[in-house]
Amino acid sequence: MDAGAIENDPSVIFVLDAAYRFRLCNAAWDRFARENGGESVVGEVVLGRSVFDYILGAVARHYRRAFERTLQQGALWSQEYECSSPHVYRRFLMSVYPIQGELLVVNSLCVERPHEGGVLSAVEERYRNAGGMVVMCSNCRKTQTSGPEQRWDWAPGFVSEPPLNVSHGLCPACFEYYANQLGS
Ligand SMILES: [Zn+2]
Description:
The chain is of the alpha+beta class. It has 7 helices and 9 strands; from the N terminus they run αββαααβββαβββαβα. It has helices at 3-8, 27-35, 43-46, 58-73, 123-127, 156-160, 172-183, and strands spanning 12-16, 22-25, 77-82, 88-99, 102-114, 134-137, 143-144, 152-153, 166-169. Zinc ion (ZN) is lined by residues 137, 139-140, 142, 170-171, 173-174.
């Protein structure tokens, strides 16, 4: 994925170098940081610092092992996690791609809803495009939104029960991953 595509992608994306230091954070990272009260974690502050300055305790050991394994084995690693705010319950899928000795980390929204309950409504409207198709990534199985932002969400309902008229594509990160695999 070229720098412009990463910068403008609606998913929160960052790149870690081989020593797990932030080399790049995109615009969505800064938006998310500011919306969640974190002026101290906007991109220009964290660049050059280790991601493990911000991930502490037992979770840090878990992520360090996962990142090391991803770099050594050269295979995509992903995990769902919760990152809620006081007002909304949110889950994300973190996909970690080893690319040329670095880690491209893409955080895709899975679920966003009020804490009070209720599930994401009008899911079909959100994902079915003008041609009547739902586009899913054939590698990571994320689903492309039909709106102008064309975000790729992790929609668990579509994974457990594929929608009608599904068409398979590759999301930008998976496309880049395979382009590098084939090119190397
Ligand atoms: Zn994908």
